[in-house]
Amino acid sequence: MSKQSFAILRKIGHVDTLISPEKQKWIVEVHPEVSFWELNGKQPLKNKKSSDAGVAERLKLLEPHYPSLKRYLLESASAGTKRDDILDAAVAAWSAERVARGQACSLGGEEVDGRGLRMEIAY
């Protein structure tokens, strides 16, 4: 298990106890790299998200949707927040907006788990 996954394990467990098939209409799972893949014309990104080139690549995809993101990215990074975390949050918001407008796509969704929850990632 990655260090990042371990760090949010408790939060994942909390959401897991609250989620139901009915709530899945408005609570969805997203994965930043899948959302960036969609924003990039269904093409994988070329650079690691933590590299300068990766940050620039992701920012270029998000700026048309969030014009002030670059300024916010610089301010937040100087306050100690990792740039790639900010970009991941922004692309998750982009996916959430698509869900709210009924424009989102998903990976999976045909299978359900033992509780009847759809196993899918929205983007």
Structural description of this entry:
The protein has 123 residues and is mostly helical. It has one domain (3-122). The chain contains five helices and two strands. The protein has helices at 3-18, 32-39, 52-62, 69-78, 83-100, and strands at residues 106-112, 118-122. The protein has a two-stranded antiparallel ribbon with strand order 1-2. Helix 2 (32-39) packs across helix 5, helix 3 (52-62) packs parallel to helix 5 (83-100) and helix 4 (69-78) runs antiparallel to helix 5. The longest helix is centred in the C-terminal third of the chain and has 18 residues, at 83-100. The relative contact order is 0.16. The model has no long low-confidence stretch (mean pLDDT 94).
Biggest β-sheet description: 2 strands, antiparallel
Contiguous uncertain segments of 5+ residues: none
Total helical segments: 5
Rg computed from alpha carbons, rounded to a whole number of angstroms: 16 Å
Helix content percent band: 40-55%
